[in-house]
Structures are given as C-alpha cells and as structure tokens.
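Hello,

I think I submitted the manganese (II) ion job twice by accident. Can you confirm which output corresponds to this input? Input:
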Amino acid sequence: MRKARIERKTREVEVEISIDLDGGDYEVDTGIPFFNHMLETFAEHSGVGLKLKARGDIEVDEHHTIEDVAITLGEAIKTALGDKKGIARFGDAIIPMDDAVALCGVDVSGRGYFNFEGSVGSVKSMSGENFVHFFDTLCRNAGINVYLQLKGMNAHHMMEASFKAFAIAFREAIEEGGKNIRSTKGVLD
Ligand SMILES: [Mn+2]
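Support: Only one job matched these inputs. Its output is below.
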C-alpha cells in the first residue's frame, strides 16, 4: 500500500496529488501544457498511478506552479515510500530520443540532491531553468538523489528524454523484492 495524498495551498498555487507507487491510471492537469506532457510521461514510464491537479498564477509565469507541483509531488513520493524497506534503492537508465540522450541514475537514499550535467533551452510553456528547478525541488522534497546527464539539440526531445530516463530509473529503484533496508546504516533517511 504505497500510496499518498498531499494537498498544498498557498496564495500563489493550489495543488492536489494522489500517488500510488504500485500502479494505476494517471490524470494530470497543471494548466501548463508541456508540463502536463512531461508529468504524463513520468507516470507512463514509471508505472505509478498519479492524479495531479494544480491551479497557479500562470499569468505571472510558470515558475510558482512548477515549483509547487515539485514540492507536493516530492512530499507525496516521500510519504508513499514510507520506511523504504525491501526496495532496490538504486536505478539507472540511458534513454535516447532522436538527437537527444539522457542518462539518469537514482538513489532513493533519503537525502535530496539533484546533480545535473548539461544545459537545455526552453520550450513554449517550460523554460530550461524551470526544468532544472523542477528536478532540484522534487529531489529535495522526495529525499532522493538523482544524477542527470543530458545532451542534444532539440529542447523538447531533451526534456522528454530526461523525464523518461528518470521514470525508468525511479521505477527500478523503488521496486520491492528484498526483505531489508538496503543500507549499512540500517535506515534510508
Ligand atoms: Mn513529446
């Protein structure tokens, strides 16, 4: 039962997320078309069930909404993971998409850190800096360590390959099968 439901309300953004790490449908509505496409990509390839609705001040720009979705999704992942007993802990993926390639490693360590190597331009409703800010904020709030190496020419391909690579690596890392907490410390946090 690795599920969580988290709500976050500020004067800038309202977010509601339900996640089921062990599967289910997905339905994403953030008011930001490209961001929806990326979150749906994450849900599709990670296999997690995801209901996500966000309404933010996108008349200002996309920053607040992307940031608050990252905070809330991070908290939902952290809550759903619980004590992380029996999970594989590590996962990795190399995903090409035409001109682009994303290499991603995940450690569900309990410590949030996003290690990004590369640079990416912007697409219509998501800037390159907000793309990086999303992953950084997600990692810190979920307590996961993600390494992402990114190359390519087309920003849409580069971002999409990244979300796919993260999804596949994450799916592998959260897979259950062991009996213990995979750490010499005895805890993952
Ligand atoms: Mn696409």
